[in-house]
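1st attempt posting a full record on here, be nice pls
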Amino acid sequence: MHLVYLVAITIKGIDGLIETIAGLIVAIVGSEQLYILALRLTAPEIEINPASQTAHLVRHAADKLADAPSDFVVIYLIAHGVIKLALAINLMIEKAWVFPVASVLLTGFILYMSHRLTMLWSPWLFAFLLFDTVTLALVLNEWRTHRARHA
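the predicted structure (as tokens):
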């Protein structure tokens, strides 16, 4: 169970790092320029395969990003990414204070994603919701084990 916990926390940390980097890229380049880049990068694929779901998914995501307020996107990505990264690092080194904090934050993420799913179904969001739910269960189990070891 501990190995699964470490894998889940590592994935959370990598995701946090990616979100932080993405937020910095949007801050530097701008969402409109990323949209233009996405169009250019996916154009050859769409020319060869007009039904390419991957290319259309990239374009759709870039379009949503370009439509969103740039400041919000930057703040959201960087804040969300840094929080995930900090939690992952502190969970890896088993700081006692991080278990309840991580539990509360993961519960918040789960509740937020559940709310979003009631408004608009997304298989991706559902997958992230499931992953965070499993991660929360693993964090709670690790917290219980950590307290037993240090009691």
